[in-house]
Amino acid sequence: MQDIHVPETVPVEKSYYNLSAVQESLAQSPIFQYDENDIPRLVITHEPEFAQTLGSIHPDAFLFSKAVDLKLAKQQHRNFRETIRKHTGALVFTVREILLMGCDDLRHRAELEEFASHCIHYRLENGLKQEDLSEKEVALLDDEYKRASLKKMTDVQLVDVIMSQPTIIIEKPDPSKHFVSHKIEMEPLTNLTFCRDQQITTAKGVVMGSMNMVQRQMETLLMLHVFKKLGIPIVGKIPAEEGATLEGGDFLPGGSDICFIGCGLRTNMKAIDYMLRNDLFGTRRVAVVEDKWDINPDRLHLDTVFGLLDAHNCIVSEDIIGEESKIKRLVTEYVKNDISGQYEISVKEMEFTHYLRENKYNIIPIPADVQLVLGCNILNIGKGRIICTHETCGRLIVEQAMKASASSSSSELTSPPFTGSVHVIPFSEIVSMNGGVHCASFVCRYPPDAQFVTRMATPGFGPMSNVPNLSSPVLSVSHSEHTLPPVSTTPTTKTFSAPLIRGVVHGIASLGNQ
Ligand SMILES: NC(=[NH2+])NCCC[C@H](N)C(=O)O
Predict the structure, then answer these.
(1) Which end of the chain is more exposed for a tag (fewer CB within 10 A), N or C?
(2) Cis (ω within 30 of 0) for the bond into 463?
(3) Which residues touch 225 (CB under 8 Å, ≥6 apart)?
(4) Which GO BP terms, alphabetically (predicted)?
């Protein structure tokens, strides 16, 4: 037997000790999203890695617009995550981090192995059939054999297997000899970076979507596994088997009264009907924004042409604006009937920006060339704080605000101007995969009536990469219905302007006690 050497001090990997704290923190209140303008409490994303290099070998076939410089992509992605953490105090994780979390507990380790075992396939090729194989060879194609290999792998190896989805091609060039393999086929999760798309998070909670493109279908199963691990409930599932397709990039919630859902290239009416019939949107009105004439991968989801800055202001790609536009979008609005509880059509096929104006939104048009590099794909991190990846777009937003505050009347605007902040970050390498900051983030948010109290965090729990840096000033959020438990630290009287979220601190406080 091999000698097992146990070092005197065993360093604990960061990823091992925070799963229960994260689960505990998330269990404090329901997981949902009322409004793009609410503060995020959890953000899940996926840092580009080897699968994205594989996608870069043929960008077009893997739904990218260009190849990715992986080193730069990683830097830009880390900066993106840090920016969200710094401004919101939200829990920000990558899919890989979540898969690795808690794997020192055999239960989570075994679940990861089990998931990985479904990602591995063996295929006989060149006319080789199961009946041509010896008993010994048949045993080598068995699930048990697969599982024995997975048991031996490290947690990181298991995640690598999941990300690459390998099929081992087995042949027998010489029938008198043992079989061989010199080829592995992979279905790598090339587009997993866009964690927005596998599901939608409405006022009701997380609804698992159904991805339109074959390149992306496996991603939904992986996200389901991730949600299960974090203890996030799933309130619905789009029936893919009935031909319904729905991707999260088509969904933008605008408060308890209204949400917007795109219908076109990736999301179809079957899925939207399913959502309406099962009351999965949770808003009084649902605006279905139909793309009838464009159907172009450059504008594949609603979030590539439209973004909500706050309750009164939005950005829209210039080329889809107006009755004359050849690629205009049309809104059919559904309203919930108070008596029957069913949704009924209240507006039929109204031009999108006309509809937005009728609903008192000020529109900031974004030039089409800026849209083409995902300039309209912004991420609202709550209370009008916008992460944006194109300076022109950022400046147009800011100019509207400055113009309005300079002229006391702000006459051209139907509603109060944007008063928030804009943070421009570099994101070119993720944009190369044809998505921006909105596409790249699964977000659930605090309830709209969460209250903000400025307080200072007590130092001494950090630093940890997965949680907000507590040495920086933070703001706590509390909410009447979902009151979070008190923080087990002593708040000081010092006041700062940036945020600390109590649920998160609670999670960290438990970590500190472990
Ligand atoms: N929410 C979004 N706009 N996501 C963009 C996804 C881009 C990805 N390459 C795809 O084609 O699926």
Answers:
(1) N
(2) yes
(3) 99, 111, 115
(4) L-arginine deiminase pathway
Q: How many CA atoms lie within 13 A of 338 on its CB side?
A: 0
pLDDT above 70 coverage of the chain, percent = 83
> Is 467 a residue whose pLDDT tops 90?
no
pLDDT at 207 over 80: yes
Give the full edge-to-edge strand order of the sheet including 180-186. Answer: 121-124, 166-171, 180-186
The average confidence (pLDDT) of the chain is 87
Please enumerate in sequence order all residues whose Cβ is within 8 A of that of 298, keeping only pairs 6 or more positions apart, or say none. 304, 371, 372
Domains in the chain with CATH codes: 32-89+193-445 (3.75.10.10), 106-186 (no CATH)
For 216-273, the pLDDT digits (tens) are 999 999 999 999 999 999 999 999 999 999 999 999 999 999 999 999 999 999 999 9
Tell how far CA 287 is from the center of its chain.
22
Distance of CA 286 to the CA centre of its chain: 21
Pseudo-torsion of CA 351, 352, 358, 360, nearest 10°? -160
Ligand 1, CB within 6 Å, residue ranges: 63-64, 191, 194, 196-197, 213, 216, 249, 300-301, 303-304, 433-435, 439
Query: What amino acid is encoded at 509 in this protein?
Result: A
C-beta pairs of 469-473 under 8 Å, 24+ apart in sequence: 469/85, 469/86, 470/500, 470/505, 470/508, 472/86, 472/498, 473/497, 473/498, 473/500
Pocket test for ligand 1, best of 63, 250, 300 (most atoms within 8 A of CB): 300
The whole-angstrom distance between residue 388's C-alpha and the CA centroid of its chain comes to 16
Cβ burial, residue 246 (10 Å; 0-12/13-18/19+): buried
Which residue has tokens 């298991």? Answer: 158
ipTM: 0.98
| 31 has pLDDT over 70 | yes
Between CA 271 and CA 210 the distance in angstroms is 9
- Both ends of the chain: CA-CA distance in Å? 34
Judge contact between 463 and 471, C-beta under 8 A: yes
| CA of 62, closest atom in ligand 1 | 9
Q: What is the pTM of this model?
A: 0.87
Q: What is the largest CA-CA distance in the chain?
A: 90
pLDDT of 446 higher than 80: yes
Which residue's alpha carbon is nearest to atom 10 within ligand 1? 63
Nearest atom of ligand 1 to the alpha carbon of 300: 3
- The better pLDDT of the pair 87, 449 is held by 87
The pLDDT value given to residue 497: 29
CA-435 nearest atom, ligand 1: 5
Pairing outcome for strands 474-478 and 451-455: antiparallel
Pocket mutation for ligand 1, best pick of 45, 68, 191, 437 (most atoms within 8 Å of C-beta): 191
